[in-house]
Amino acid sequence: MIRAYKFLMRPTVRQTAALGEMLRDHCSLYNGALQERRDAYRHPSRTSVKYGTQSAQLRDIRAFDPEHQGRWSFSSQQATLRRLDKAFAAFFRRVKAGDAPGYPRFRGVNWFDTVEFPKDGDGCRWDAAPHDRATRVRLQGVGQVKVNRHRPVIGRVKTVSVKREGRKWFVVLTAEQERPEPLPPTGSVVGIDLGIAHFLADSDGGFVPNPRHGRTAAAKLEAAQRALSRFPRRKAKDRTAHHRRAVEKVAGLHGKVRRRRLDHAHKTALALVRTHDFIAHEDLKIRNMKKAPAPKPNPDRPGGFLPNGAAAKAALNRSIADAGWGVFLAILHAKAESAGREVIAVDPRNTSRVCPECGHTAKENRPTQEKFHCVACGHTGHADTVGATNVLRAGLARRHADPAEREARGSGRGRSHHTVLTSRRRPRRAS
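Structure (tokenized):
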């Protein structure tokens, strides 16, 4: 099992300058490798440059420029080249799938904030005393940097990453550890329905209010962004002190909203995992839910368009982004795996339109946002609670059918038409 840890670094003034130089030099390497690929493709021969070719050139690059490239870890520079290679792999995958391609772009110095060391001990060393919170991490070209280790790191450290967020520096570790002991069973199962009016409604009739962190900070963000807009657009090195403070003000407010949203997601997911053995939720396609409506040309006036509800949809999209459903579900799956709980995602279609008493499905069953009234049997209730109840029933049905489906797939008798998403956590970098 792979777990990520993120700790605040406390570098000295000299170490802060060295960390900034490390980011700039890795950014320069990334942009140079991207330029080489662009030039090779534009050549009449249409030569394709891969990671192996660019990695083999690193020794010559380091020997040619020892001041800027030769002082840093060789493996961290290889990780930067792999980062570019992954960007191109994702680009070609989107092209093949017919999505918006998104060709890899050059990175500015302020948009390159992470350097990864693929192996502990190769260009970096994590030194953790067993009972001392003031730990240190050694980085080639930077030195021994103090780290505020607010919790112990369990397992063997595999990768080390250095990340800049505003004026703060963080070290991100991935550690391989044994699967922890599961929490004692509670015998409780629950279905949850994510929404805007309430962040979460469960099948037991409970509600978790939506904190709306983005809307709460909207006034301060608007004022800070208005102050920033008064400055002419300049490169980072040409900004005045007042301009830099305005940029940091906006970034700090966005970071505060992000941390509050993350804290709320952690606490809500932890409460669910501690209370219930089985959790079912809707398999939401959040990216599709946030798509802008298609324009409606006006047939009577060439070049004109009819109202398509874009303003209302934009407000809804902001509310969806502010709720942070994707972050919450990722955290829920990770915590469930650590606790030995089971999480299943079910098809969200008609979950709030199906009557839990008689099974009648109709759009008219939900006359308002909160009210549910079955037109067939007269059952009434809160629409979100009804949706959570239906989600739980669908999740339990898939849970009981899952062993039979696996046996059918193994014997070749058939294939399930449903996708069951359980809590299989992938190794990922914390953010």
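The chain has two domains: 2-176, 189-411. Residues 241-275 form the longest helix (35 residues).
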